[in-house]
Design brief:
mainly alpha
């Protein structure tokens, strides 16, 4: 299920600080966002992404990443530029939308009957052979 996402390759880097350097909290929050973004974005391109894995990444994006962006936006001492916060929000939102789309595709694929398990294998796993029309 290789997917060509419209999601940027990375989050925007921290802009240069206007006055005092960025606080350790801002730097650490950005590093956490960057790491989570990179891992979740990589899940879009996995050929064997299952719905559970994609759901996990979607939840991390919608809950963890979005809340961190909102915390960064509410920082009042030496705040980040509004344009930068808007760009972060947009990038995280794009990732969430793409993960949602890929998750729906994965659910559709997993809902399809499997053609990789012949009936003989399926009944050998259950130890119950299928009923023959002749035995009815």
């Amino acid at each position: 299920m290789s997917h060509t996402p419209a999601v940027p390759l990375a989050l925007p880097t921290l802009p240069p600080a206007a006055g005092a350097p960025w606080s350790a909290e801002i730097v650490n929050a950005h590093q956490g966002l960057t790491s989570t973004f990179r891992i979740s974005r990589a899940a879009l391109n996995l050929d064997e992404s299952d719905p559970i894995r994609l759901g996990h990444h979607l939840e991390r994006t919608e809950v963890f990443m979005s809340s961190i962006v909102e915390v960064l936006a509410s920082h009042t001492i030496n705040p980040l530029p509004r344009q930068y916060i808007d760009e972060l929000r947009s990038t995280v939102s794009t990732l969430a939308k793409e993960l949602q789309q890929v998750l729906q595709e994965a659910k559709t694929v997993f809902a399809q009957p499997s053609y990789f398990h012949p009936p003989q294998l399926m009944w050998s796993l259950t130890a119950k052979p299928p009923k023959s029309p002749m035995s009815m």
